[in-house]
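Quick log. Single chain, no ligands specified.
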Amino acid sequence: MSERGSIGVAVGGAALIGALTALQARINGTLGAELGDGIVAAAVSFSSGLVILAALSALVPEGRRGFGRLVRGIRERSIPPWMLLGGLVGAFTVASQGLTVATIGVALFTVGFVAGQTTGGLVLDRVGYGPAGVVPVTVRRLVGAALAIAGVIVCLSGDALGGVPLWMLVVPAVAGAGVAWQQGTNGRLRVRVESPLTATLVNFIGGTAVLLLAAVVHVAVAGAPRAVPSEPWLYLGGAVGVIYIFLSAVVVRRTGVLLLGLGSVVGLLSTSVVLDALWPAPAAPTTAVAVLAAAVAIAGVVVAAVPWRRPGRR
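-> predicted structure:
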């Protein structure tokens, strides 16, 4: 496959990751609203994902081999402890979905998330944190990132933010910056254990432990959830998370952290348009504004991803 075709496939995978992230945000946000407790909703989502991953790791030969390499790496200290902490960011991201999306909508959640992710991706690629090493922050990448942020700014136009607490935008931004770090960390762990499945399992073990502890403390202080919803789709957030974290660990090796983030912007904003049009939230932007924002962000991905050549060069 040519370089352009290979990058195109990788960016397509990054866009799918973004779409799945938006879908998970809607599922977890709705579950949090139904339960009246975003922390418990996040714990339910992560726990279900962990069950799926544990079963896959036991059944798939690659998963068993990867887990064996993980155990050996920890025992021999060839895998440093910080490489096992990606799940903490995942836990924070899922919790932020459960706490904010039912109020601000998927598109406005994406506003803060993408701003943090894009900025974090630029910094991490520049210092060589991802498994691809130092990825130069060229003018093309800067312009692409600026267009992605411009798409975010478009989402902020109008009166959508009138009654939205500031923390509901700050928390997703922090989550976005954390996810940029998580994607680089997962990619490096995947290289060590030679298994995306095992890298994803590590994330869910850490995230589930943190969220279950937080849920127990929160229920002890604030009381049990007011109701337990019966709709099966509300419990699929964990399964969706398994898929997109697994894809992140694979795709980041080809794209770098920034380009993975930019490709995710396309999926995030495009899917957010559809989800907010079908299930509007109180502070969601209009469909026209969301479509314009998605178009601007897509232009940013094209500028950053396509290997343009000067005339006369081959």
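The mean pLDDT is 80.
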